[in-house]
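Course assignment 3, question 2. Fill in each field.
Student: A.L.
Task: Predict the tertiary structure for the chain below.
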Amino acid sequence: MTSKKELTIYDLAERLNLSIATVSRALNNDPTVNKKTKRKVCELAEAMGYRKNNFASGLRMQKTNTIGIIVHELNSHFIASVLSGIEEVLTAAEYIIVIGHSSESSVTEVANANNLFHKRVDGLIVSLANDTVNLDHYDPFVKRGIPIVFFDRVRKEAPGIKVIIDNEKAGYEATAHLIQQGCRRLMHITGNLAQNVYVDRLNGFKKALRDKNLPDEPGHVLVTDLSERAGREVARQILELKRKPDGLFFSNDLCAAVCMKTLKEAGIKVPQEIAVVGFNNDTISRLVEPQLSTVNYAGSEMGRVAANNLLSQLNSSLGVASYTVVLTSQLMIRESSLRYAIL
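Answer field:
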């Protein structure tokens, strides 16, 4: 099957017996071209299916009006909310979005970054993959002065702007709430500690234990991939313990909800015997029974802040900036952790 040749501005100019410059100005609604000529050019362009080559025009102006986004997963309420916030801001600013999905793989993240660099994106918004430690694949952007905004999963040494929450504070508050509810044998289930979000939440967990004079017992921090499978495995490990924890703090909601469901099926009462707190306020936290206590931080707000800071960089003549924006989070207390009334 043969493909139809893409119609160009040269074809329009030849068909109308006009100069290429006149056709170009007419298509761009230049006031120097009279209305009759504009109408003739636009009518023929529409009739022949002409598509304006914004990419080529952008290259001439050293701008493509395209923003690259790299996220670690797409099957996530939080990431979907972030993308919605980014799209809201960038679409209003007439930018095109190109999304790369790393699927929690640093190798795929590197490929995405290289692809977006060669697509000549004007800027980049990134949340790092679970196993990303080395950031060399962002060096070409830095060297070309292309601004980068990292959000949620970041590295402190990363170039550019970082948009985060205070994960240590959030982890502390979640753990302190469990202690307030009478829990004395606490367990924290977390993700890859190479990532800031997980190590900071762990630090908050440990600090709350120290402040309440509770032991940081060996084996009471479990590093998992926070998946559905991990939730079942954590429940299995807990059920085999003679001295079970009475409070669980998870670094995401999916793993927490699956673990809680598995424990309940085995006869464990939640929260009476084991109280549970998750993280992210994903939809599943409101669908499980009992509803899951969790830490909420608005993905849409994080997306809007990331996009607005990127736009500020694109419109700045001061060069690429490097700073951190810290957004607020809230502990949302629901039935899964509520043993006593909160006064």
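Instructor remarks: The domain at 9-52 is CATH 1.10.260.40 (434 Repressor (Amino-terminal Domain)). The mean pLDDT is 91.
Grade: pending
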